[in-house]
Write a structure and sequence with these properties.
alpha/beta
Amino acid sequence: MATEPAVLTARALLLDMDGTLVNSDAVVERIWRRWAASQGLDGDQVMSVVHGRQGHASMALLLPERPVEENLADNARMLAEETADMDGVIEVPGATAFLAALRDAPHALVTSADVALSTARMAAAGLPLPEVRVTAESVGASKPDPEGFLKGAAELGADPADCVVFEDSGAGIAAGRAAGMRVVGVGPRAGEHRPDAWVQDLTELRVEPQPDGTIRLLIG
């Protein structure tokens, strides 16, 4: 017997990039496992922390005694490496159709990547950049802090309670919740963090813009 899809209604959508619109796991694994080896850290432990956060915030968790300046320097170097490495970067299934359906609906990209990396990865995956973007340069605090999502909502003129966040990571889901927003989890990582709704990928989602300006989401 077919299961009825879950339905959410929103006035604006706030979209994470890595793991949500773009599958960049291959390059993230390469860069971070190399860093882990250079620091004598367990690669699996490092990978359990880094998704969703800005690099220097992940380093601060993994090496709490390390000077902030070293984390920032490593972060800048690794961002440059990631921006130059697009091998294996592809769209999450359904992302092209999802963004096309949102063309005339309020939505924003809210990513822990910087401008250069987010621009390069979206292009490598063949995806258009939303007009409203909140990147690493736009915020003072990394996810799981809600600042990025709150800024995105403010730029779209939407109340946080009327926003739905799309996220793949524990840090991102926590940030969306802290912002007072509902969260749709995307992919296997997200399922571990109890989002309000969950999809394996974006093919399991239908977007229906409504005449009153709201966005109806049919999930599953």
